[in-house]
Structure formats: structure tokens, C-alpha cells
């Protein structure tokens, strides 16, 4: 069975490979710091397998993660600006290959979707070929490999490892932001364990005037929004706001339809995801990936959708979830 | 209540633009100490937090193929293709992508797009290509705005599309949480159906903004040109293409 751990090992292998390329690059301005960062990050992906299986202590990985943060925040990590084609060369290539260039880009989603759809019937004996709990991740990993192979076959780069070299170029433009989503998810775990959720829930209850339906709907939705902004995702906000207001006040007190209250409540949280740097993989990684000067530029573009949509969710919940006399 | 200091640290840290990695780490450690966790428990939390969240770094596997096709001019080709289609403006390109992204996400095909998979190699170059056709050259400020909106179209599309699909993480989280905590029996399908009104509102609000984006860009280009000409002490060159 191809399980999700093999995909994490693929990621680890890529990081270690890139660390090796950086170590060999004498012109790199932060050669050893960068190589150490990406190499250690890669090793963490391998070691994580043992942590998940509970065969190795997690604190070792904890120390490694703190070392990564130290490397990144003390300026030891830099962009080596690895060699690639010039804009003129690219225009010439584009003229030569034309729309064939889109084939590898399309291979990726097509292969991914085919594998996702076929996964339930792909079996060796009675064991599924692909880990049924992480089908999409495994499919995406296989899709990416297939797309790289198709790309090399069509474009015929002089060096067959060109995808690895070019991948390093993009990775280095992303830099430390590549690690941020995982760190934020850890922060969410620490917040929950330390009781931040209960504290916010108590605060939310405190501001709620009793007996007003519209006030309760507003506090629930705005609470989901704010808490999502602070934690970076609606998943962490949902249990807390639902335990504080959604269930006791909106469903039990005002007899709201639970499916509507909870579905729209979660989506009110998603409006918060549009507005927060804490949702790094949606808002900060893309600005690094697009090489934007302002790393909050994606959020700037989204706030004017997130806030009106929160208002829309409040209205939808108020009018759809309750029987109005 | 003391643990909320950690939340405050995050806000202050982001506001004064410290390295976010450092902000998050320090806030995590402070919060955990205030919450009474021991140093070993904190290290364990960092370790297990890292290993259980490795899936968010999956975007790394697509970098090699995207890098390769960029090397051979994918972005240039995407621009060239769009610049031939006279009716496509930046706003309309992004609106088209929003539609595709939202519908495919609603069908459960979230991995079909994404910032590494589609926005960098295809969506942004096409949006920029449309702007190049309209304005001739694109000032940096305007390019920055197009980048932001390219990523935004992807996020809005996937966030408010995926919840219409029943087997998505957030729907399953709701049903598991409320079913075990409150003894309800909510079907994922009931929740998915009630995600549709919000999905429609999201499309209307963001779609409206994208249709207006072209006018905003017109004004921004004009402004940037005026600044350039003022800086160069040259008399204004009249109307623009």
C-alpha cells in the first residue's frame, strides 16, 4: 500500500536534495545556513514518521524545529538565486514549444483526479493500493511525479534533473515561509492545551445580552470570525464558539436548526481565514510564491470580500435557521 | 485569562513585523508556560505538532514540475495566449478562474488548483498578460495588485466551494464534533446543502469586485504613469492605450 508517509518521505528527500545542491553552490550568499536549514527540515520529515508511529520521542523533533526557527530568524537563511533561463530565452522556448508547455501543467491535476476516482477500486488482493485515509495527498504526490516525467519527456532539458534544480529556485524564493504553516498549526495545539479557547469562550459569553436572537447570532458569527483570525483556521474556532454559544444559546435556547447554524457558523470562520496572516499557507506562502513586495498583499486583496461576506453569513443564519413568528 | 497574553504577543509581533516564525514560536512557548506546561511537554508539543501537520507542506512536491515548465517559458506562453484574446481583461480572467475553482472544489476536486499548482504558473501570468495587452506596460504597483488578486481568487473559490462537497474536512469536523458532544445525528449532506447560500453570496461579492477590478487597475496605471512622468520632468504624454 502506498501510504501518506511515503509522500512525506518524498518531500523529505526533495529538501535533502536541495540542501545538497545549495551546499555545492559556492556563489550562494548564505550557503551553509541555508543548506543546514533545508537539510534539517528534510530530516524532520523522515523522523516525523517515527513520531507518528510513537516509536521515537517527539521532543527530539521539537528541538530540531526550534533550531530551524533559530536559523531562519537570525538571517542565516538566504536566497541563492540559482541559475535559470533569461526572459529572452524563455520567450524563444515559448515560441518553440507553444501550447505543449501546458501539457505537464495539466498532467498534474488530471493524474491526481484519476487516481482519486480510481482509488476505491485499486486493490492488490484485498489491500487497497492507496491509503484510503489520505487519498488526495497520495494522488497529488503521484500526480506531481508523473507531471515531472511528462515534462522532461516533452521539453527534453539537457540535464534530466532540471526539475530538481528549478524546484530549488522556487523553494528559495519562498524561504522560511515554507515552514510557517506547520509552525502555526503547532501554535494552535499549544493554544488549545493551554486553555486559550476556554478563555475566549468565557469572554464571548460575557458580552452576550440575554434574550436577543440577533445579538446571539452576531456574537456567534463574529466570534467565529475573530477566533479564526487569531488561530488561523476555523477548525480551532468551531468547537470553542459552538460550546460557548452555538449549541447552548442558538440551538437549545432559540431552537435553531443545528445543521444550518453549524454550517453557516463554520463559513463565518472561513471569512476570518481570508483576513489573517495566521492562515499562512493561504495568505503568506502565496505572496512569497508570487514574489510580492508586500507579504500581506494577498490579505489586502481579500478583506473587502471577507467582511461583507461575514455580514451576509449573519443575515443568512438569522433568516434561514430560525422560525420567525 | 492570563493565557490570552500569548494571543496578544502574536498580534503585536505581526504588527511590528518581526519574523513570523519567531513570533509564533515565542508566543507558543509563553502561552504554554502560562498554561502550566513543563519544558519537556512543550518540546513534545512542537515535535508532535510538526509531524502531525506535515500534510500542509505538500505543495513542495509540485515545485519541480512547475519550475521545469517555467524554465521553458510557461508564463510567457500563458501571457502570449491571453494577449491574443482581446475581450479578456484581468478582472474577467480572474472571474473565470473563480468560477472554475469554486465549481471544481464543490465537486471535491480541491487539489486541481492551488497557489503552487495553478496560480503561479497559469493564473497570474494570464491576468498579467491581459493587463499587458490593455496597458502596454504594467507598473510594479499594479503588478503587485494583480498578484494579490490572483491568489485571492483561488482562496475565495476553494474556501466557499469545498464546503458544498460532503467529504471535506470542515464538514466532517462539524459532524464528528456535534455528534459526539451533543448526541446529534447530523448527515454531512445536510450541512453541505446549507453551505450553498454562502457559496452563492461569496461568488456574487467577489465576482462583483473582480468585475470592478479593471476600473481600479485603469486608475492605478494612470496614477503610476503620472508619477513617472512627474518624476522624469517630461510633459504628460496624453491618453493611454
Automatic annotation (TrEMBL), chain A:
Keyword Membrane recorded: yes
Name this protein carries in UniProt: DUF979 domain-containing protein
Keyword Hydrolase listed: no
Keywords, alphabetical: Membrane, Transmembrane, Transmembrane helix
Transmembrane segments: 6-23, 35-53, 59-80, 101-122, 134-155, 176-196, 208-227, 234-254, 260-284, 296-321
InterPro entries to which the protein is assigned, alphabetical: DUF979 (IPR009323)
Coiled coil feature spans: none
Superkingdom, taxonomy of origin: Bacteria
UniProtKB/TrEMBL annotation, chain B:
Lineage of origin: Bacteria, Bacillati, Actinomycetota, Actinomycetes, Micrococcales
Protein name (database record): DUF969 domain-containing protein
Entry's transmembrane regions: 56-74, 164-184, 191-211
Key words of the record: Membrane, Transmembrane, Transmembrane helix
